[in-house]
Write a structure and sequence with these properties.
Layout: H1 12-35, H2 41-62, H3 71-95, H4 101-108, H5 111-122, H6 130-147, H7 157-178, H8 187-209, H9 220-253, H10 256-272, H11 278-295, H12 297-313
Length: 314
């Protein structure tokens, strides 16, 4: 969410936080899959953002900061909450009623691809370069493989669910661009404001669509999963993410994009008995390759290794 213009160095603490954050966010896809077996999608979304809002607002005040009080300040929080929480969370939760959690995580990893495309259209600062175009095309080819050529002949509920996850990635991309207007706002205040606004939006939607009063009372296992999703995967994860951003910069923090799908696949295989297809693996590798091309660090490393070999050969 917070965009820093410089890239700092990753120290030991930042690497530990990055790996922990990737593990936590990997777990969110597993928890979504568990929760949709017992609760309807919008109720899951409401539970996640409402409990996270309580936790984050408490963290804001305990840290000595304050939430804004003017109506004008809260308007942008509602826009950001819709783009960064309500819309993508709902699409992901519903999508996981039809597809594996690992596949959902892979498709969600395409967020940077859509962010780059949208930034080219919607901003003047970030334009497409040949390197970015190559990375985007490679990543989108991976998406085509993941969804499968059969979708061209007719959309099934499975392919619609996959497109829903892609739609969530697009919404995250829009949120990333919109969030730039919060650069003068403390990151924790932004995080708390958006999930608080998301709660106010998700509450009437869940009442209208899911009618939670008609549902069977959740077991303690369901409550535990919902609290873990809200407090661990949202509130605490935001604190960790902003800590990495402040210490190591946005470029290094973006490495979490590569790690989350791997963790989600492992959890899906070990805990849910999911079995990714060969197409899923190939598509994931192509998405990762596209992200690596856009990131540039892998290409720069290969260039330095080639120069080193040439020097030794000379």
């Amino acid at each position: 969410m917070l965009v820093l213009n410089k890239s700092q160095t990753m120290g030991t603490i930042e690497w530990i936080l990055l790996l922990a954050l990737a593990t936590i966010w990997s777990g969110s896809f597993y928890l979504f899959k568990v929760l949709v077996e017992h609760l309807p999608p919008l109720t899951v979304v409401l539970g996640r953002v409402s409990f996270a809002a309580v936790a984050l607002v408490a963290i804001v005040y305990l840290s000595g900061q304050r939430m804004p009080t003017s109506r004008r300040a809260w308007g942008p929080f509602f826009v950001l909450g819709a783009l960064n929480n309500v819309i993508p969370f709902t699409l992901i939760v519903w999508g996981e009623t039809r597809i594996a959690s690992g596949l959902a995580a892979i498709l969600n990893a395409t967020t940077p691809l859509f962010t780059i495309l949208l930034a080219h259209v919607m901003t003047r600062e970030e334009r497409l370069t040949p390197q970015k175009i190559a990375g985007v095309l490679l990543g989108l080819a991976g998406v085509v493989i993941l969804i499968g050529p059969s979708a061209v002949h007719g959309l099934s509920l499975r392919s619609i669910a996959q497109l829903a996850i892609v739609g969530a990635a697009v919404s995250y991309g829009l949120a990333g661009i919109y969030a730039r207007r919060f650069k003068e706002t403390p990151p924790l205040v932004t995080a708390a404001g958006q999930v608080s606004a998301s709660t106010l939006m998700a509450f009437p939607l869940a009442l209208l669509v899911d009618r939670p009063w008609t549902l069977t009372a959740p077991s303690w296992e369901v409550w535990s999963a919902l609290l873990a999703l809200a407090v661990l995967c949202t509130a605490i994860a935001y604190v960790m993410y902003f800590r990495i951003l402040a210490a190591a910069g946005a470029t290094n923090a973006s490495l979490v994009t590569f790690l989350v799908p791997i963790g989600a696949l492992v959890l899906g295989i070990r805990l849910l008995g999911e079995h990714p297809s060969h197409g899923d693996v190939i598509g994931m590798l192509m998405v990762f390759a596209g992200l690596a091309v856009i990131d540039g660090r892998v290409l720069a490393l290969l260039g330095r290794l080639r120069e080193l070999r040439e020097r030794r050969a000379a």
